[in-house]
Design goal:
By secondary structure, this protein is mainly α. It contains four helices and no strands. Helix 1 runs antiparallel to helix 3.
């Protein structure tokens, strides 16, 4: 039961991390002209990050999200692994 809950948390967190990074990257690159022109209006230059820098940030973000999801699922997994299966089903927990 413990591994099942942790595996589910890891899968859902990984899926959410990938979708979040993809959505953020899409919006970032879709509006890069708007961002650059807004900053130029305030006389602030903006240097776009390199692809390797964006990849490093994306990997760090994914690993952080995965770690937080697994850490957040540790306590519920531990408490449900300690329950007797019959009593857990009977009481609805």
């Amino acid at each position: 039961m413990f591994r099942l809950i942790l595996a589910e948390a890891a899968f859902l967190t990984a899926l959410g991390g990938i979708l979040g990074i993809a959505a953020g990257g899409t919006l970032f690159y879709a509006y890069k002209e708007v961002l650059a022109s807004s900053l130029l209006a305030f006389k602030v230059p903006y240097i776009w990050p390199s692809v390797s820098h964006v990849a490093a940030i994306s990997i760090f973000t994914f690993i952080s999200a995965l770690a937080m999801g697994i850490i957040g699922a540790l306590y519920p997994a531990y408490t449900s692994a300690r329950l007797d299966p019959y009593n857990a089903i009977r009481t609805g927990e």
